Structure formats: C-alpha cells, structure tokens
Amino acid sequence: MRPASVKEYVAIARPDNWIKNLFMFPGMLFALSIFHTPFSLELVVKIVIGLASICLIASANYVINEYLDAGFDKYHPLKNTRSSVITIINPKILYSEYLVLAVIGILLAYFVSSKFLFTASFLLIMGIIYNVKPFRSKDRVFLDVLSESVNNPIRFAAGWFIFSPALGIPNSKWDLNWINTFPPVSIIIAYWMGGAFLMATKRFAEFRLIDNPHVAGLYRKSFKIYTENSLLVSMFFYAITCAFFMGIFLVKDRIELLVSFPFFALLFSWYLRIGLLNDSPVQGSEKLYTRKWFMLYLVLFTMLLCGLMFIDIPWLHWFLKNANNY
C-alpha cells in the first residue's frame, strides 16, 4: 500500500459530515424561543465560533475513529475503500492532526461560554469513550448505539448554550436562575432516544447488507450478539421512549408543538420504511440524500417546527388547562 496523501488526511477528518452538526439548530431555536435572545453582531460571532468549534471537535473524533477502525472496516462492503484501509497512515501525523483539531475546537469553545466549553469537552470525551480502549463502547452491544447517539443531545445542548444567558457559577445548589439556563431534561432524553432510533436503524441496515453473521462480527464486535430481531426490537424501544419524553416536553414547555406530533410520527415511520430496504440508504447520510421526497418532507417538517416555536395557539392552552375537568 502507498502512504496516505495530504488529501486523504483531510478526508479522514470527514468535513463532509459537518452537516450532522445541524443537530445544533433545534437547540438554538428552542433557546431563542424561551430566552428571546436579541440578535446582535456578538451573537452572530458566537454562532459562527460555536459551529466551528463543534465541527472541529467532531472531526477530531472522526480522525481517531477511522484510524482505530481500519482493521475492522476492511470487512465492510462500503467502508473498505476508506483512506485508512487502502493507504498507510502515519500515526505521528494522524495524532498530530487529532490534537490540532481538538485543541483549536476547545479554544474556540472557550470564547462562547463556560457551559458551551463544558459541552464541547464532553463531545470530545465521548469520542474517546466510543473509540479508544479500554472503554471502546462501540464494541459493546446496545451501549454502542447509546454512546454514539448521545452526541445528538450534546449538539442540541451546544446550540442551546449559544443562545442561553451566560450566567456564572451558581452561588449555591439552590440557585434556580443558573439551573434554568439549562435545557429541559425531557427534551435531552427525547433527542438522545431519537438519535438512538436512527443509529439502531443504521445498524440494522448494515447487518442486513453484510448478510453474514461471521463477517459482520469481524466488522463490528457487537454484531456477534446482535440479530435482526434484537435490533428491530431496540428500534421500537428507542422510538417509543423518544415519543414519551417528547410528549412530556410538549405538554410542559411548548404545547404548540403538539400539532407537529402526527408529522413527527410519520417521519419516524418513513425513516423505518427506508431502513428496511435492501442496501438501505440510512447507512450513510450521503446516501440518504438520494431519497428526495423524504428530504423534502424533512425540510417542510423543520419549517413547521420553526413556526410552531414562535406561533401561539391559545385553544391548545385552553385544552390543556381544562383537560383535567373531563
């Protein structure tokens, strides 16, 4: 094999996957609707710096992920063409790349807020827990999905902390003003479980694509225990749990979003349908973009959520207030 080129070291950082950091956008939107953060040049700068920080830290995680997974990815029918598999990666260059991306990402996070810095650091730590021994949670059944999908609520919180008030350290554990600048636990869990549903569906599609339990186990150790049935059951568990905590959030924090619930259910159902296809596009975001009608629906659904975050619907409040009377 030939040594990796500069272009391939850049590819290992997967800048094409920065699109996933749009998961920060709902956090920004929810925080904006609650705190009514005024738009200013300072806020715009914080948004740009925050996005750059999370993108660089995500790339740092991708760098170690691809390098440490090279011996496993060669068994995957799609990932066996990755740079780390078909070229010789210099460990010194790779770890230098990781450190540069991680350090710059953390330094940028410092200029947003202390809470954003904590969130960005947590994202970096989760990359280590997911990829590096002795933790390497990606090898552990079910924990692989849960530990990877936790990056979704981390991104949500990062977006939230860009818009939330930058209060200092609380004077005591009862300082509610400081606590109230954090996102509701219900939406964090819902976001986590929603991401777990997406990730379990991806695992299901990968397992079916490989179509050989032995080879699947060589590619991903958790596949030695997973079956199609166990993955399918876990997908339903994550979806139901997501819906439960989403319902709590809707009733307590933004009842107008209740209007979106049937469209939310359709989104999950449609994604599940795509996940059940042979050679399913859910195995990679670049393939999912080929489902044009699904992507159009996703855009329209996002627009609906944006509208419902800022449009008040009085009769829904009346319904919630009087529901206990019936």
Give descriptors for this structure.
326 residues, 17 helices, mainly alpha, Tetracycline Repressor, domain 2, 2 domains, globular, single chain
Molecular structure report:
With 326 residues, the protein is mainly alpha-helical. It has two domains: 1-171, UbiA prenyltransferase (Tetracycline Repressor, domain 2, Orthogonal Bundle), CATH 1.10.357; 184-321. Helix content is 68%, strand content 0%. The chain has 17 helices and no strands. α6 (91-110) packs antiparallel against α7 and α11 runs antiparallel to α13. It is globular, with a radius of gyration of 21 Å. Mean pLDDT is 86; it is low at 168-176.
What is the level-2 CATH architecture name of the largest domain? Orthogonal Bundle
Strand content: under 5%
Give the beta-strand count.
Answer: 0
Please estimate the helix content.
55-70%
- Could you spell the SSE succession in H and E letters? HHHHHHHHHHHHHHHHH
Average predicted confidence as pLDDT: 86
User: How many domain regions?
Assistant: 2
Overall 3D shape = globular
Largest sheet: none
Question: How far is it from the N-terminal to the C-terminal residue, by CA?
Answer: 73 Å
Structural class by SSE content: mainly alpha
CATH topological fold name of the largest domain: Tetracycline Repressor, domain 2
Q: How many separate helices?
A: 17
Q: CATH superfamily membership of the largest domain, which one? A: UbiA prenyltransferase
